[in-house]
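QA checklist item 7 of 12: single-chain prediction sanity check.
[x] sequence parsed
[x] length recorded as 188
[x] structure emitted
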Amino acid sequence: MILSGAFVRMQKTIPVRLLLLALIVCFFLQIGFMFFEFPVEVRIVGVNLFLAFMQFLAVYYVLRSNLSQLANRVLAVGFSVVGLASFIRALGILVTGDDIYGADQEWGRLFFIGLAVVNITEGFTCLGDLLIDRIDLVSKQALTDPLPNCFNRRGFDELAAQTIEKAKRGNNETVLIVADLDRFKRVN
């Protein structure tokens, strides 16, 4: 879901095939874990490699977007941290045969709580950004006429008030030119 939110946030087409493939892989992983006796280490490796792949995929798409916004940087860092932690955990189990994060120890559980907080932060960042984007869109729509894509009366009044206020502060003169075009409705 976080990956879908990132795509919506970046105004990119959600790769439905890729997400469907991820869902199918996740489904079969869960079915396999339910019906077959896999060692815990195999389960941890499978889930963590899948999670790392999804997080790095999100990083890839976020990095392809406009990184000038702070929220996009937060998302890229969050996705990277969780993806790297998941990959290192899977790699550690493959190399040593042990869970290097010590999930059965207190510090290991605290580490996983930290990762959960990072994931939750990613989700709220996506949600907050989507809300801000929608508010900006609605504000723009309220101030512009969609056909000529210029200010409507409300937008003009707001811009005029800002311009007059700015001129007063800078002790500048302001000029307003009004033109009335006859039979403009036919052109418009």
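[x] summary fact logged: The radius of gyration is 26 Å.
[ ] second reviewer sign-off
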